[in-house]
Design a protein that fits this description.
Blueprint: H1 9-13, E1 23-27, H2 40-44, H3 55-70, E2 75-79, H4 82-85, H5 103-126, E3 136-141, H6 143-159, E4 165-169
Parallel strand pairs: 1-2, 1-3, 3-4
């Protein structure tokens, strides 16, 4: 897995992204981060399923990414906003009801993530890694679905064009 820093052209050029090729970006949801399975299909590039509290979502997500990677989608990325999506999870077990107390905070953070994702897409376009905003397909799960929609609105507001496609998987009721 390669990290691309927003605004860092060197990290973008070293990322392995193929210029001029459509980009699929997945944004995980509530209580998920890169270390607990939110981006495993991208990190491992294989069907590496871990049974967890959200096994149906992980099955759907893994199946989706395997399908995308088998098709012509060469540029597949994941937004890891796990520190915001799963605050204090190192001290609170998922088996308790306590994580739900952080939901309003995480929902608010999802808005910020969406705006920042929109800025990142503009950065990719300005660096000519895509030919147009139609080359983006944003896929989000839970609050990540809302973040993807907010990113699309950011593009519409700032660039006056629409994203190619936005897919929401089980959008959260925020």
């Amino acid at each position: 897995m390669v990290e691309i820093e927003y605004g860092n052209i060197e990290s973008l050029e070293k990322s392995g992204l193929i210029k001029g090729t459509p980009v699929v970006i997945f944004t995980h949801g509530f209580l998920v981060n890169i270390s607990n399975g939110g981006c495993d299909p991208i990190k491992d590039g294989i069907f590496n399923l871990k049974i967890s509290q959200m096994e149906i979502v992980f099955i759907l997500t893994n199946t989706l990414f395997v399908a995308l990677l088998r098709e012509n989608y060469k540029n597949v990325m994941c937004v890891d906003w796990g520190k915001l999506a799963a605050p204090n999870m190192d001290i609170l077990p998922l088996s308790t009801f306590l994580p739900i107390l952080f939901y309003p905070e995480v929902a608010f953070a999802g808005n910020i993530v969406g705006r920042r994702l929109g800025d990142f897409l503009i950065f990719l376009k300005r660096q000519k890694f895509v030919n147009s905003f139609q080359d983006f397909h944003l896929i989000g799960h839970s609050i990540g679905a809302h973040s993807s929609g907010i990113a699309g609105m950011r593009i519409l507001d700032q660039e006056h064009v629409k994203i190619g496609r936005i897919t929401g998987l089980d959008p959260a009721g925020i």
